[in-house]
Design a protein that fits this description.
Number of helices: 13
Strand order of the largest sheet: 6-5-1-9-10-11-12-13-14
Structural class: alpha/beta
CATH class: Alpha Beta
CATH architecture: 3-Layer(aba) Sandwich
Number of strands: 14
Largest sheet: 9 strands, mixed
Number of domains: 1
Oligomer: single chain
Helix content: 40-55%
Order of helices and strands: EEHEHEHEHEEEHEHEHHEHHEEEHHH
CATH superfamily: Ribokinase
Radius of gyration: 18 Å
């Protein structure tokens, strides 16, 4: 019996978002536009440099899959999230934020150590660059997955970032097999071109003989399929998934509903921060299809949500924004 619309797993991170210049990224030897895994001392070093500039920092619970299920929950889906936090102030903040969003949080007993953190740096061109210290999320395990909740969910949504480690990949693979055995549909985000290319083998292990839905942007699709055009990537993706959505910023989205491949135009937006656009698209899309809408309708609503979120600082919308979105 289905009791949840979406059960998602991913890195449980506290996001710190800040505006920076291209010069700052250059001076700190930070590669722009991608997610880079760093250790605690390196992240602290960058934060010290930002504090020396008296930069304004915004903190809240985050992580890709977490952002998506928060959006889906605000829109009306019954959503759950599994992740690992430590017994520290950031772990408390993370759990509190999810409770406020009405997302059920499944986690093992709080651990010693440090809750993971993601430093999200936004440049004037609205591009986001991330330095991530996983903290205890690095040891994400089967203990963070509530299998009773999983098998009673309509969709199991997996964050591709979890596949940057073989041990975590084994944990996720077992959960995916369990989901498939119980008729739970499986969706996965490719997360980042770096993940899609460097950890392609782990993603292939998770996908196995195929999943039900893949979310990716154009760069991730090209990296994963080793192609040089969105159209070629779309054809290759059909071998791995029943359906998919490839987002491409202002160019809209290319969506395959299992029968028809179609383009959905983007909503006009004046982007100031693209962080969270893909997460918002996925969360809104999952809400729509669990509400019984078709893929065309889902992609149109998801594009509207993504356009709204890029016009403000931070990866999330307010409750009033979701209400406006549902009424559109």
């Amino acid at each position: 019996m289905m009791t949840n619309h979406i059960y998602a797993i991913g890195a449980a991170l506290v996001d710190t978002e800040v505006s920076v210049s291209n010069t700052f990224l250059h001076n700190q030897a930070i590669e722009k536009g991608i997610m880079t895994l760093v250790d605690q001392s390196r992240q602290a070093e960058v934060l010290t440099a930002l504090n020396n500039q008296q930069a304004k920092l915004q903190r809240q619970s985050g992580g890709s899959a977490c952002n998506s299920v928060v959006a889906a929950s605000h829109l009306g889906a019954k959503a759950c999230f599994g992740g690992k936090v430590a017994d520290d102030a950031d772990g408390v903040l993370f759990a509190h934020d999810l409770a406020q969003a009405n997302v059920t949080f499944y986690s093992a007993k709080a651990n010693l150590g440090v809750t993971g953190k993601c430093l999200v740096m936004i440049t004037d061109d609205a591009e986001r660059t991330m330095n991530t210290y996983l903290g205890v999320s690095d040891s994400f395990s089967v203990d963070e997955i509530d299998h009773n909740a999983l098998v009673s969910s309509e969709w199991f949504y997996i964050e591709g970032y979890l596949q940057t480690d073989d041990r975590r990949t084994n944990v996720v693979k077992a959960a995916v097999d369990n989901a498939k055995q119980h008729g739970v549909k499986v969706a996965i985000s490719l997360s980042d071109p770096f993940v899609a290319q460097i950890f392609s083998n782990n993603l292939h292990r998770i996908i196995g003989e195929g999943v039900d839905l893949i979310f990716c942007n154009k760069d991730e699709a090209l990296a994963f399929t080793n192609t040089d055009s969105t159209e070629a990537a779309a054809e290759k993706l059909k071998a791995y998934t029943k359906t998919f959505a490839i987002t491409d910023g202002a160019n809209g989205a290319l969506v395959f509903d299992g029968q028809v491949l179609f383009k959905v135009p983007a909503e006009k937006a004046k982007a100031i921060d693209t962080n969270g656009a893909g997460d918002m698209f996925a969360g809104t899309f999952l809400y729509a299809i669990t509400a019984g809408k078709d893929y065309q309708w889902a992609a149109q609503l998801a594009n509207k949500a993504a356009a709204m979120v890029v016009e403000r600082f931070g990866p999330r919308l307010e409750a009033a924004d979701f209400k406006k979105l549902k009424a559109s």
